[in-house]
Amino acid sequence: MVDRCLLRPTVSTDLPALVALERSSFSDPWTAEQLGEAIADEAAIALVLEEQGEVVGSVLARVVADEAEILTIAVSPTHRRRGLGRRMLDAAVADSAARGAQTVWLEVRHSNRAAREMYLGAGFVAAGVRRGYYRRPPEDAIVLCHRIVPAASDGAPLQ
Ligand SMILES: CC(C)(COP(=O)(O)OP(=O)(O)OC[C@H]1O[C@@H](n2cnc3c(N)ncnc32)[C@H](O)[C@@H]1OP(=O)(O)O)[C@@H](O)C(=O)NCCC(=O)NCCS
Questions:
Q1: Which residues contact ligand 1 via a Cβ below 6 A?
Q2: Where are the domains positioned within the chain?
């Protein structure tokens, strides 16, 4: 299928669409206030995917020093399995690298197979578990990380 979606920076007028997207995607969605604050943060990377004038996907990340964190990412339920989530994730990782991040971190619900598969496919690896991290419903988080810039010790030949 030809992808007609436009990937662009999030603007404040996207907020109602982002709230709706969060509500349709998460059991414990971010509020308008939380989303507004995150987007306004100068450390934020905030992108939306728009199709025919409608916001169908969103990713929010944050870069501090040489580390980035994916805060939230969602694709409208009617637009999933078209590669849009992966497209936004790759763009957020690339933007993080451009801003100096060497590692990207995120948390994902243990039961969230779709997201976990997407992250693994994009090069993220498991780095730990945060017990009881989520509420509504309570669940452990799997911590994933993606090293954009290999550490000096990674794959170094043994002398
Ligand atoms: C996770 C999410 C963003 C994926 O978006 P998407 O646009 O459907 O994903 P893509 O089409 O880009 O798929 C990328 C890869 O993810 C994996 N994937 C996506 N949906 C999947 C599913 N339902 N089951 C298994 N694997 C899945 C696949 O590996 C897929 O690659 P493939 O199509 O080559 O098999 C979307 O399911 C979503 O919005 N979920 C609700 C919000 C959420 O859970 N966000 C993540 C919070 S940590």
A1: 25-26, 73-75, 80-86, 108, 112-115, 117-118, 121
A2: 6-147
Task: Render 29-92 in DSSP notation, one character per residue.
Answer: PPPHHHHHHHHHSTTEEEEEEEETTEEEEEEEEEEETTEEEEEEEEE-GGG-SSSHHHHHHHHH
Query: What is the average per-residue pLDDT within 117-136?
Result: 97
Ligand 1 centroid to Cα of residue 36, in Å, is 25
6-147: CATH topology is Aminopeptidase (3.40.630)
Tokens of 19: 């709230």
- Can you tell me whether residue 141 is helix, strand or coil? strand
Under the banding of pLDDT at 50, 70 and 90, the label for residue 158 is: low
pLDDT tens per residue across span 44-101 = 999 999 999 999 999 999 999 999 999 999 999 999 999 999 999 999 999 999 999 9
